[in-house]
Amino acid sequence: MSTFQELGLNDDLLKAIADIGFETPSDVQLKAVPILLEKDTDLVALAQTGTGKTAAFGFPMLQKIDMDSRTTQGLILSPTRELCLQITNEIKAYGKYCNGLNVVAIYGGASITDQAREVKRGAQIIVATPGRMKDMIKRRLVDISKIKYSVLDEADEMLNMGFKEDITEILSHTPEEKNTWLFSATMPKEVSNIAKKFMVDPIEITVGNKNESTNQVSHEYYLVNARDRYGALKRLADANPEIFSVIFCRTKRDTQKVAEQLIEDGYSAGALHGDLSQNQRDLVMKSFRNQQIQMLVATDVAARGIDVDDITHVINYQLPDEPEIYTHRSGRTGRAGKTGISMVIVSKSEVRKIKSIERIIKKDFIKKEVPDGMAICEVQLMSLANKINDTEINPEIDKYLESINELFTDTTKEELIKKFFSGEFTRFFNYYSKSRIQNVTESRGSDSDDGGGRGYTSNANDTRYFINVGRKDGYDWMKLKDFLKEVLELGRDDVFKVDVKESFSFFTTDKGLQEKVIAFFTDFKHDGRFVNVEVSEDKGQGTSRNKRRSGGGGFGGGRKRDDSSRSERRSSGGRSDRGDSGNRGTRRSDSDSKPRRTESASSDSDRPRRSRR
Ligand code: ADP
Ligand code: MG
Q1: Of 94, 114, 201, 367, which has the highest C-beta tally within 10 A?
Q2: What is the pairing mode between strands 125-128 and 74-77?
Q3: Where is the DEAD-box RNA helicase Q domain (predicted)?
């Protein structure tokens, strides 16, 4: 079987398929469509993103439902609003010749009354996010008691996002005898549990190897010091002037921060994460789809399943917490038979994660060096030259040329070219002749991270801190590291060299985080007691701390001692801009010799600005 006709689809669908331009069914469509058309069965389908799953359930659903009835017969649950809208549009396009079809999207962040009104007009198919769906059921704004087909799309992601209870609740309002079709890119335990719980003898189909990532994607990693992460990102972008990419960060905060920094540096970038309003997210997605934005910085959740073709690069600014997530990320590129590159920026402490990912994707990464500054200048120059060469001449320009020509009568072609290109070249040259990034070699790192981050060598770019909690407060290094990561909302490797003593401890972060750490712990209370953090002179073992006053250890000591300096700091603007401006009497002398503030990546002044497309 190799054509849509042979799959058994009706004329209305075939006509729409021809309009859309699909020529042959994809693997998952080949396998799923005939089964779903012929049988009333439950189904579990495992296939990577970008394999055409929407049509694999959309075609059969459209063919099987009764368009003459206004009853809701199909329910599709998907994890995010973006996906929900995407699926809705897709189903509408497939069903454009199905007379009487009404597909309604139900998702949070938009008017529930509008959505209820749409449903009331008679929606044969509802595409919904679990949260809003549950809400509408509770308020009796939808009736799904006569559903015949339910689809759990991106099931693994829905479970990842904690929708298990919602899904259970929603399905409890649907009839027993309906069919459930579950689509997922991966098959973790939770997904098979769901399958067991809600499905009867499901037919299982798998496209490609389970969890295998797409073939057209090559995987590269760049090993740099953690502080060079952003600089490396810029170089990767600059070395690929035509880049059209998704950049993945681990947290919403980092996503926002990186996007802002890129924009400030003149890149055409945008952020996509859950803290943005729906409207903002829609706008960003629209610009990205239109390729007005070259770099979309996104969290995993927000970018999941988003289907934008022609993405040239996926950049893992930080690796995901779960190696399986990597396959979703890299699956954003290399779609529709095109090739793509998935790049990972790693620091030494994370490099062994690459190995776990290689096992999952069953492909090797290529270790690459961050491009050299001068090589980037050349790439940019040639890209500009090619663009100029490709530029179509606008005849309207002729009438303005006279005065321009006059200006250049004494200039040779050679000089003119040099002048013209120097503008662009100088911008990059000035920046890259100063900017340095050290490519890190792996061998030294193979002694590796012991999990607590110990074993790092001390480094002028790190900041060592003293914190007034220790073993007697119930901490060991792991607990303290977890605590710091959590309250500071930092990534897994941002806090390291955690060294816990009896009544106090030491830890280290990248210098760029110093201001934030100190500002955060100004007035910070935990379990009703003040936690005090200061920059420490001690960068090594953390065994001694000069001039440390005894008796101040523990939460209680901190509270008594520091109340006055705290209010002082607050009155001078709350947040110290010298890192550690709070006067801590004798305590701070050990950190006086350190520069308090470091240049973060965003503060290097004459970085090149990119012209927007
Ligand atoms: P998935 O849900 O598996 O991630 P989608 O259903 O979003 O994949 O489809 C990915 C892209 O491939 C979409 O742009 C879709 O229109 C396109 N597509 C789906 N089926 C076909 C096909 N048979 N031929 C060509 N393109 C297809
Ligand atoms: Mg999909």
Answers
A1: 94
A2: parallel
A3: 2-30
